[in-house]
Amino acid sequence: MSTPIEDYALIGDCETAALVSRNGSIDWLCLPHFASPACFASMLGTGDNGHWSIAPKIEARCTRRYLDHTLVLETTFESDDGSALLLDFMPIRGGNAHLVRIVRGIRGNVPMCMEMALRFDYGRSVPWVTRIEDDALRAIAGPDMTVLRTSAPLRGENLKTLSEFTVAEGESVHFVLSYGPSYDELPPPADPEQALCETVNFWQEWASRAKLNGEYTDAVERSLITLKALTYRHTGGIVAAPTTSLPEQLGGQRNWDYRYCWLRDATFTLLALMNAGYFEEAQAWHDWLLRAVAGSPDQVQIMYGIHGERNLLEWEVQWLSGYENSKPVRVGNAASEQLQLDVYGEVADAMLHAHLGGIPRNEIDVALHIALNEHLATIWQQPDQGIWEVRGEPQHFTYSKIMAWVAFDRAVKTMEKFGVQGQVERWRDLRDTIHREVCQKAYNSEVGSFTQAYGSNQLDASLLLIPQVGFLPCTDPRVRGTIEAIEKKLMYNGFVLRYRTENVDDGLPAGEGAFLACSFWMVTALRMLGRVEDARGLFERLLSLRNDVGLLAEEYDPRAMRQMGNFPQALSHISLINAAFEFTRASSPGQQRAESSPATPGAPKKPRETA
User: Which residue, 116, 351, 357, 382, is the most exposed by fewest CB within 10 angstroms?
Assistant: First the structure.
């Protein structure tokens, strides 16, 4: 049986990331960057698809944590005869990528076992392994090369590298796996203890820059560190997750590659970073966004690669059996080719909030903003695939039209606030036209709610964002009715579904868990309604879903009580940060977005109570 998704922890170097199981096995790692083929892929197959485990040979109890304010993972193994700890981390690169594992003896003598099965190209290619030094093995397959350096004894067996050793109290045994192109020189060795010190210092210095206060500081800091770990430091792009094809339902087909950067996360991300005081990271994300969408407005995609790549061709990895036999395993994402109108509003909203937060404007920003709106003016009446990237027929999705309204609304506000020249009256007219149409065609008086699409009677959790984007206030009875209807009909054992897949033809078999970002959106919606205690109760239930090191996947299955979907999920952690700020900041993210007011670190205030 596969290791539960919530039993994994994340390590990374802001260029790629690895997942480490509770029992000390690295079961997922892509090198040299997030979207590269995996060299450890047993998470989506079997141990023969690549893993690297270090654990006691004897039965031992296991606990783990991150070193304070860092992404350095410490796993402690305790037995009656002794204890040892395992430190796992990836140093920020100066050149080659390194993955460092240090075993320290704490008490007594602990016999340990190391097993490595390198399998390049998503677990398919067995490398040619040779000993190049007394303490080093080189593995090569095609373009890829790794070098394993250690003082522990090594031997080969059944196409694996094994080591057995005993660590005594006060002793340390080091393992360093270094990556480089096979046609290049050997990666230079890394000093593991110096790398540990430098990695701890990097993360602690970064975490110290946060402007946090209030009772949820620890949860927010861990989410911020996770978000930083999912950021490709050379471009500022933030991957949705470091994994592909972890299923939304065990045995199901809703398995997608999330190692790319989604435009629709832009404003959520900017507000989370700027409210926490990370304006440099916010600007890097903003700059990545502008570079990615630059070009012909009719070619804007909903997602891009970490460098801004547009070709994200989707294909299936036939030789991987999938997580708990959930197939297919997909690489690439065909949704990148879909029309999704909401991204135009998201880009416009992000641009406005970036400028309100102090990120400088320039002529390219303004010209791009105008060009995107010019194109949107010609297509906003078309059906699309919507925020959830359905693989069924295009529809007139309500949230898509609302975000088209946001695009023109933010264009008007940008011109009014900053004196930008443009077609203010035209944008204002289009904004008003869309608003009238949505209110006429998307509100179902029989349901007492806005619905997923024009003429539909189905609910959709994206409509929780209506008051947050400023389309209508929470005081509007239609908005209150929408929130209450979603609360009544889309809540599944206390958490929010995106929509009822069994009632909607989205081109895929029905079935998935509760989408965690939607549940965090419900927190903000309840807070904006003045139901503070209900909002806080839901928020704290969501916090309780985090694993032992504070991480969240995309979804949660309340029946099986398991995390599901790609892991850890950036949007889940971004939504956690923004929901926490609803309780700890004078100006909450929901208010900032609805009122188009700047995001700046501020002092907490006591939440208003329900009348």
Answer: 382
| pLDDT tens, residue by residue, 556-581 | 999 999 999 999 999 999 999 999 99
pLDDT tens, position by position, 443-488: 999 999 999 999 999 999 999 999 999 999 999 999 999 999 999 9
Establish whether domains 5-184 and 215-595 are of one fold. no
- Tokens 């008003």 belong to which residue? 432
Length of the chain, in residues: 611
pLDDT tens digits for 404-427? 999 999 999 988 888 766 688 899
Cβ contact 470:461 at 8 Å = no
For 60-171, where are the E strands, in sequence order? 61-66, 73-78, 82-89, 97-117, 128-133, 136-141, 144-150, 155-157, 160-168
- Please state, in angstroms and as integers, the Cα–Cα distance from residue 217 to each residue in 98, 224, 518, 557, 598, following that order: 31, 10, 22, 26, 22
Q: For residues 55 and 177, what is the distance between their CA atoms, to the nearest angstrom?
A: 17
3-state DSSP assignment of residue 94: coil
- The residue ranges of DSSP E strands in 143-279, in sequence order, are 144-150, 155-157, 160-168, 172-181, 261-262
Q: For residues 166-181, give the mean pLDDT.
A: 97
Where residue 254 falls among pLDDT bands split at 50, 70, 90? Answer: very high
Other beta carbons within 10 angstroms of residue 363's beta carbon come to 7
CA distances, 160 to each of 37, 113, 125 (Å): 20, 13, 13
> Domain ranges in the chain?
5-184, 215-595
DSSP code, position 231: B
531-549 tens-digit pLDDT: 999 999 999 999 999 999 9
Answer whether the bond into residue 509 is a cis peptide, omega within 30°. no
79 by Cβ neighbours in 10 Å (0-12 / 13-18 / 19+) ranks as middle
Exposed, middle or buried, 325 (CB in 10 Å: 0-12/13-18/19+)? exposed
Answer yes or no: are the C-beta atoms of 7 and 324 closer than 8 Å.
Answer: no
CATH domain 5-184 topology: Beta-galactosidase; Chain A, domain 5 (2.70.98)
Count how many Cα atoms sit within 13 Å of the Cα of residue 304 in the half-sphere of its side chain: 24
Mention the CATH class of domain 215-595.
Answer: mainly alpha
CA dihedral 535, 541, 543, 549 (to 10 degrees): 180
CA distances (Å), origin 358, targets 203, 346, 352, 408, 423: 25, 18, 10, 21, 24
* Burial of residue 131 (number of CB atoms within 10 Å: 0-12, 13-18, 19+): exposed
Q: What's the pLDDT score for residue 423?
A: 81
Residue 23 one-letter amino acid = N
